[in-house]
Amino acid sequence: MVCGHCGASAQVGQRFCGQCGRQLVATCANCGFENPPENRFCGSCGNALGEGAAAPAAPSTTERRVVSVLFVDLVGFTSFSEGRDPEDVRSLITEYFELAREVVERFGGTVDKFIGDAVMAWWGATTAKEDDAERAVRAALEVIDTVSALGTRSGIDGLAARAGVMTGEVAVGPGGNEKGLILGDLVNSTSRLQSLAEPGAVMVGDTTANLIRRSIVVEPAGTHQVKGKEEPITAWKAVRVLSELGGRGRVEMLEPPFVGRTSELRLLKDALQATGREQRSRLVSLVGQAGIGKSRVIREFSNYVDGLVGDVYWHEG
What we know:
The chain is of the alpha+beta class. It has seven helices and ten strands. It is globular, with a radius of gyration of 21 Å.
């Protein structure tokens, strides 16, 4: 076990950290419940704890569940691949898949499959949470931003992604991969919705829009007739994260868009992820004249952090 406060290792049977004196807890990877260190299984959901803990498994029988499905697709990848060395293309697509998986898991989702240059992921099939739809859209927005940064870093002009998120009932059961098989019209509809998005945009369905509008700005994107569906799809464009999960900390007054500080916000996000990955602290200082947006950057960063499934300790003073 590792102390969640100072990161020091603890032996089996310890109840308090030998470095900082804090009480040790075993946080369940499935539901986030904090258990006493001697527990072998989570007292909230029954999931195994410790090094041998297994990820939530698929249901043993087919069940109907409400899930949020995410489809992400690279734009213009076919034309980019043409005439380029296959190893360079494979290197790029591999990095894109790794980044997409990292972002999805960071927000509590599960990657179901990679199809060509597309990624399918879902929330709620094995373990459902009230904010699954919101985390799915947050992940979609972050993947879009990450792909743009990947293009800039790789010197590929115009590299972009587009995404679609829909929420609804599907059939979940054994089969497919170890997470199970998800079947239903929702999967096909999400794929069609994703194809309607412009490069760098995230489209969401009607149900998803109703679930996230307290914390994420959505704009109407019309009603569209798509291939293979008799009924048209009502689409909304997810623009940006407005607050913490569920609308906490939302500024009720009219707030201008967040512009001109995206690189600084990306730096903070990357520093946070690197700190967790390497277990090495970092110091980031925001210095500037009054009124140039330092507090706004911190608020946007706080909204981002609140959507992550991992524990982040935030001190404000």
